[in-house]
Design a protein that fits this description.
This protein is an alpha/beta fold. It has one domain (2-210): Metallo-beta-lactamase, Chain A, CATH 3.60.15.10. It is built from 6 helices and 14 strands. The strands form 3 sheets. Strands 1-2-3-4-5-6 form a 6-stranded mixed sheet, covered by helices on one side. It has a 6-stranded mixed sheet with strand order 7-8-9-10-13-14. Strands 11-12 form a two-stranded antiparallel ribbon. Strand 13 (189-192) and strand 14 form a beta hairpin. The longest helix is centred in the N-terminal third of the chain and has 13 residues, at 35-47. It holds the Pfam family Lactamase_B. One of its GO terms (molecular function) is hydrolase activity. Its cofactor is Zn(2+). It comes from Pontibacter burrus. Residues 12-194 form the Metallo-beta-lactamase domain.
Length: 211
Amino acid sequence: MKIARFTFNPFAENTYVLYDDTNECVVIDPGCSDKKENDKLQQFITNNNLKVVRLLNTHCHIDHVLGNKFVADTYNVGLEIHEKDLDTLRAIPVYAPVYGITGYEEQLPASYLEEGGQVKFGNTTLEIIFAPGHAPGHVVFYHKEDKTLIAGDVLFQESIGRTDLPGGDYDTLISSIRTKLFVLPDEVTVYPGHGPETTIGHEKKYNPFLQ
């Protein structure tokens, strides 16, 4: 499996395209917020002859969903989220203007992701892990063969997701990290929703929130 990362919008959010040798791909957390960013994502997909077959959100805060409608409409794919984050998604039109974001177009989910389920595309299978705390319906995607984790805003390099937003809970987040992420092998590479990659082993040893 190959992973392409794009950093989009004023929140410097990481959007991921995952693909394999079949050229099928999934788009995770499209944060593209204007035509230039839309074009950058689309150009990569076109240049690599990829076929978008899934559209996934780790969670539904505004910076992770701005490109949902663009991807859904352009590639005729339905949005998939965890059902417990539907209220998070539905709240965006109310608060988007506070962040100076106008013209947001809502894309509602076509189906829901469940803990213990799988996301399959091409020859690739991702495990769905429910990891709330930053958002009530936050999930992460684990590729066991490559030891890679698309972690959204649960765990960052020597930091963790914020818990002061509606639906956030610090104790729940710490529990999610310890019981869902830290049980994975130390060599697992963590691809977060913001900032650079890290590893499970590094965060066990150096993350100040988890000592």
